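Researcher: Re-running this chain for the archive, since the previous output was lost when a drive failed. Same request as before.
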Amino acid sequence: MSILQDILTYNASFVENKEYEPYITTKYPNKRIVVLSCMDTRLVELLPKAMNMRNGDVKIVKSAGALVSHPFGAIMRSLLVAVYELQADEVYVIGHYDCGMSAVDPESMIRKMVDRGVSQEIIDVVEFSGIDLKEFLRGFGDVATSVVKSVETIRNHPLMAKDIPVHGLVIDPNTGRLDVIEDGTVIRAK
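Model: Regenerated structure tokens:
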């Protein structure tokens, strides 16, 4: 059986047995915050538990490395929707130690793309169209610096409300310990 079939079989039982009932909530975050975190598998359950968050408490947006790589991309749009349409009053950018994005080698990734069937011609067309693939795929060296960069992009975004605190934290993916890199309430108070 495929993974999809396993999921669908489980899901049918989940719905039939009404196992969803403990998770019923509204679309508005109870704690009125939105979290941008990394898509790392270690954070799926650990991050909400480490922050004392339950289903319905927060909006969670995920991207590789908890990065806002483009000020008018989907990640930033999601954060703006959370603030203006879904009643979030604070933004938390939470990176993590031992992040895979810190070790991404763009040239190696491009070779893997070619190995999996993306033609060199396609790569050349993408680059000819003005996309610097190596820059687009580049990771980061230091997670704290990366978090600060994303915090600054959000905080200084022309469409973000200036009264919204934007916090930056780094979580230990083994223990759940949170280290504050930027306290948005302090920054905002200046």
